Write the C-alpha cells for this entry.
Amino acid sequence: MTIIRQQDVIQSVADALQYISYYHPADFIKAVKDAYDREESKSAKDAMAQILINSRMCAMGHRPICQDTGIVTVFVKVGMQVQWDAQMSLTDMINQGVREAYGLPDNILRASILADPDGARNNTGDNTPAVIHYEIVPGDKVSIDVAAKGGGSEAKSKFAMLNPSDSVVEWVLKMVPTMGAGWCPPGILGIGIGGTAEKAMLMAKEALLEHIDIQDLQAKGAENRNEELRLELFDKVNALGIGAQGLGGLTTVLDIKIKDYPSHAANKAVAIIPNCAATRHAHFELDGSGPAKLDPPNLEDWPDITWEQDESVRRVNLDKVTQRDIEQWKPGDTLLLSGKMLTGRDAAHKKMTDILASGQQLPVDLRGRFIYYVGPVDPIGDEAVGPAGPTTATRMDKFTRTLLEETGLMGMIGKAERGQVGIDAIRDNQAVYLIAVGGAAYLVSKAIVKADVIAFPELGMEAIYEFEVKDMPVTVAVDTHGESVHRIGPAIWQAKIEQHGLTLSE
C-alpha cells in the first residue's frame, strides 16, 4: 500500500509547470531542427530559427517560451492501492500546485484564466482552476501528465460528427487550411476518432502528450489503420504548403497523433486539436517516496543557431516612419523595428471602441503609431518586460476599421493571418500589418528596452503599454494594398510541392 502525501502532489505539479514553461521536450527540438535543415522557404526557415533560438534562451535563462503560459490541463491515473496523507481533495492539491507555480517570484508565469467566461470575465489571478481528467487504474502509484496549452492553438480546435462512410482524411485536409496560422505551426495535430463527441475531443488532447516518432513510423511502415492514417495525413497536410507561421514552406506539422475508440454504428466523431510551437508537457509518477524529480535536459540537445540578417532587411525607426515609407513595404519583407510602439489586445480594443462610440477622447493618441497585439509576462530582475510574443490578430479584426478610421493608427503587429474584414480595413486605410514569430516570446522581449503602462492599468496584462524597442524582428504580412503573405506564401509553396514533388524526406 502506497501513501501519497499532499505536499508531494502540490510540489510535483508546481515543479512540473515551471519545468515545462522553459524547457521544450527534446523530441520537439530535434523535430524542429530537422525541419529547419530541410526547409527551402527563407521566411519559414527564419521563423524556425527564431523558435529554436528562443527555446535555447529560455532553457538557459529559465523564462517562459511563450508569453501565453497556457491553461493547465492534467491527466491523472490513480492506482487503486494508493492511500492519501492529505486534508485537501486531489483537485485542490493540483490547483494549489498551479497557484504556486504561476506565482513563483523567480519565474513569474502569466495568469490567463478568466472566471465568468460569458460575463464579467474576471482574471482569477493565479491561473487556476486547471482542467483535470481522472482515471482509476490498477497499481500503487499516481501517474500524472501536466500540460500548459496556449489559447491561440486551443482556439483552432475542430470537431465534427461525420457520417460513417465519410473520409477522415478529406475532413482533416478541409479543416487545416481554415485553422490559419494562429496555432503557430510547425506543431503537432492530435486527432481523436470515435467514441462520443466529448471522448473524441479528449483523445485528441491526450494524443498531444505522445513523443514525436513519425520518422520511425515512416521507416518501419504502417501496421494498422491508425498508422496508415498518420502517414497519409502527415504527407498530405505538409503538402498544403502552409509552412512555419503560415508563411509558406515544406513543414506545417512535425507529427500527426491519432487515438481512436469504438463508436456507435451511426456515428463517426472526429476531433482535431493542434499543439503549437510552444509545446509544453511533462510526465511524472508519485510512488510515496517524495515529490517527483524532473531532470534538466542537456543543453547540447539545443542547436546553436543564429538568425541571419542579410542586405534585404530594412531598419525602421517607428518614431519617424511615414506613410510614404510604409507604402514601399511588400508582403514577406523583413523589418527591424526600433523606437516606440503601443500595445493592446482584446480587452483594450473593446474599451477603446466603446470610448470612441460614446464620443469621448481616448486616453492615448494613436495617430501615426503602431500597436502590438500582446499581453506580456511580468518582468523579473532587470527585465524591462517579461516574454512578450504576439497574440492572434484575427480577434482584433472587428475593431480594426474603427481604430484606423477614427484614430489615424498607422500599423499593427501580431501573429498569424488577418481575416478579410481586417484586410479590407487595412487596404482601405492604406495601413499595414506586421507579424512577429509566435513561439519566440523571450527572444522578442530582449528587443524591448523599456515598458510603461500608459492606459487601462486595471486590465493587467491586457493594459496598454508603451514599449521602446531596439531591432525587433517582424515580417510584413499585409501591405497597404491589402496583399497578404498568408495568401501568397502557402499558394506558392503548395504549387512548388505539387510541381516538383518536394517531400520532407528530401
The two ends are 54 Å apart (CA to CA).
